[in-house]
Amino acid sequence: MNEEEMISGEDVMSEGMSSGGHPGMKRRRVFRFTRERQRVKDAAGVLFRYKKILLTYQRLKNMSKAFQIHGVDRNTVASTTPIAEMLLVAPEKVAEVGEFDPSKEKLLDYARRCYVALDEETLSRVQALKKNNLLLPISYRLKGGEDSLKEKETHATTN
């Protein structure tokens, strides 16, 4: 046998298993995401990211895939969700909360202030929009005492 007639094992394998190893099987699409990060620095950035993820979620009906597509962790979005919900549902409350100043506070602290500013009526509107998939159905617990902030607020109004 000369060299021209010899076929390597790789050539035989690639010809016989062109569909990923099993004949007749569909090939799965593998998503490869680059781990580029874009840090959100203000309330407008939070709202922009929230809307992008919301549109993807409405299309896919899968929150984890929507987060994966945009390269964002669920907890990252959950921690800033009160900002986006306040801007979408009750933009008039921005005056009550005040503008975000990055030199004075962190974005997470501003999210806590937004959460405290949401009253019962606004929270019920948010829940209704979440049920209709018009907002992300994401729950959040802000660490650092949102419960104590709510307690202080209710305690101050009762005294």
Automatic annotation (TrEMBL):
Q: What cellular component terms from Gene Ontology apply here?
A: nucleoplasm
Q: Mind telling me which InterPro entries this protein's record contains?
A: CCDC106 (IPR031591)
Q: Where is this region: Disordered?
A: 1-27
Give any Pfam family that matches: CCDC106
Query: What is the protein's name according to its record?
Result: Coiled-coil domain-containing protein 106-like
